[in-house]
Amino acid sequence: MFFLGFAQVWCGNYTNGALKSKVIEGVHAPNHFRVIGTLSNNADFAKAWKCPLGSPMNPPHKCILW
């Protein structure tokens, strides 16, 4: 439930123009990438959702900050 709640916080739709503006002018990644980037680098997510090693949501090399 934690991961679903995390992803739902960032749920949203952009028009093509709004997305382009966000990418060019924004300081943060678009919501989709904030979710995918965070969760695909989280070993607990891969374990909870049984993502095979090497799949898009469980790459063999992860970015670990802490």
What is the number of helices? 4
Helical percentage: 40-55%
| Beginning-to-end CA distance, first to last residue | 22 Å
- The oligomeric state is single chain
Radius of gyration: 14 Å
**Unreliable parts:** none
Order of helices and strands: HHHH
Give a quick rundown of the structure.
By secondary structure, the chain is mainly alpha-helical. It has helices at about 1-10, 15-25, 30-40, 45-50.
Write the layout of secondary structure elements.
Elements: H1 2-9, H2 16-25, H3 31-40, H4 43-48
Can you characterise this structure?
With about 70 residues, the protein is mostly helical. About 50% of the residues lie in helices and about 0% in strands. The protein has helices spanning about 1-10, 15-25, 30-40, 45-50. The two termini are about 20 Å apart. The mean pLDDT is about 95.
Short key terms for the protein model shown above:
single chain, 66 residues, mainly alpha
